[in-house]
Amino acid sequence: MSDPPAPVRVARPDDAPDVVALRALVHPYIVRGVASTRKMIAEPSPGEHWTAFVADVDRAVVGWVSAYREGRTSTDGFGCVSLLHVHPDHRGRGLGSALLTAALDHLAPLGIRRVRAWALDEALPFARRHGFTPGRELRYSALELRSVPPPPPAAPGVRLLPLADVGPDELYPAVRAAAVDEPGDVPVDAMSYQSFRYEIWDNLGLDRQASTVAVADGKGAGEEAADEGVVAFSLVKRDGDRMWSDYTGTVPGHRGRGLARPVTSQWSCLRELG
Ligand SMILES: CC(C)(COP(=O)(O)OP(=O)(O)OC[C@H]1O[C@@H](n2cnc3c(N)ncnc32)[C@H](O)[C@@H]1OP(=O)(O)O)[C@@H](O)C(=O)NCCC(=O)NCCS
Known about the structure:
Keywords: Acyltransferase, Transferase. The protein is α+β, with helices and mostly antiparallel strands. 25% of the residues lie in helices and 24% in strands.
């Protein structure tokens, strides 16, 4: 692939502080700090051909986009253009289109035939003009932790533990099983152990004390509850005093037992975490 025309260039690890500052302006709800962003650029997700471009105007990062093959699905030829955004003062000058072109030019030789992107409401006309069709609505909710009631007790035969008390091999089967019916444009049915390690377990933002797992002792009520190990989890990432509820899941055979609420309210009540 030839280099994109200036001012768009491939992102560098040292862009991380500027990328985080720009993202905080356009997508203030996202929690991903400088160290984690630097690592994402320096050591991208294996097997996904992940790359990112920035718009660099007078040595200031004023635009960002990343592009990769979606590695968590068995659906062939499916890619993502993620978080395309341009600083509000630099819009309407072709930077968004140039970043999008660089992203799509990166994906085309990989055999990607369908691409998912995320757009704010205000950017839907731009996305439509570039050939995207609105599909699903994504919503984020904010929670002020001081107002969270105490957690309900866990179901019989289940213990709640901080993620720090289990290993990756115990969490991986639960994450994989819970993801199978995750709502989305393509099934999340092919998350490799390598990708789990990269995205979740080795993620610099993962808070292992606040993230909580529900572990069954194999003696729970009902036939479907008879297995042992991690049966529900709530994973959170942190940057300073902000936390991102990254992924809460219950293994299909254990749904309807009231496990999701105790795992999530466990971390939300940990006021001593600051
Ligand atoms: C969507 C977004 C990335 C567009 O960024 P941008 O830099 O303003 O994009 P462009 O300048 O390339 O295109 C915007 C308009 O400016 C016009 N334009 C003005 N001057 C231009 C120039 N010199 N060259 C090319 N286009 C120019 C384009 O024709 C385009 O008009 P159109 O939307 O009617 O086609 C930006 O609005 C944004 O960050 N939005 C919030 C984040 C978001 O939701 N992103 C999702 C994108 S799918």
